[in-house]
Amino acid sequence: MTLITDTEPAQSTRRANTESPLLDVLAERWSPRSYDKTAVISEAVLTTVLEAARWAPSASNMQPARFIVARRGSASFAKINDALLGFNKAWADTASVLIVNVAKLAIDETRDNPWARYDLGQAVAHLTIQAQSEGLHTHQMGGFDGEAIATAFNLTDDQAVVTVTALGVLGSADDLTPELREREVAPRSRLPLAELLLVND
Fold it and tell me: What is the pTM of this model?
């Protein structure tokens, strides 16, 4: 078993070929599918990663981000894994932790928060970067049965399951199926920055 503590150094793999210099933690972040199935993340490190999400910005400080945190081997982990779809089913069970990212949609009984999902995304981004700085990796998933997760965890109507995050220690791509391994080692790419800027006066 590999125990990841708060003194574990960050890993550097598959660094992005950026057009301008970035912080190392941003340039080195990527989304693997291969995780060390023996690794256990210490409670101190996991708390730090979640604390980063807690301190993300949100509209009017409404803080709509909610999380279901499930450690590998727990009943909650099994429930989340059972709700995954497609390729996610083939690899996500090796992650140390699965996190369901939930947006609290209602401000009160009469108003919804139009920025809830956006602010949840900011919280997950903070979580992701903090995890990277701790020597961990994350992978965001959209392939899941949201209704199954909502039912399994008794979520209310104003709690929307938006994504699921796999969190863990990088494993070997050779442990993946041939199709997934091909994706794992494929060159990283992004659109040129100029194509993203609708206006740049």
Answer: 0.92
pLDDT tens digits, one per residue of 33-82? 999 999 999 999 999 999 999 999 999 999 999 999 999 999 999 999 99
Q: List pLDDT tens digits, range 143-167.
A: 999 999 999 999 999 999 999 999 9
Tokens representing 99?
């996190």
In the chain, what are the domains? 37-187 (3.40.109.10)
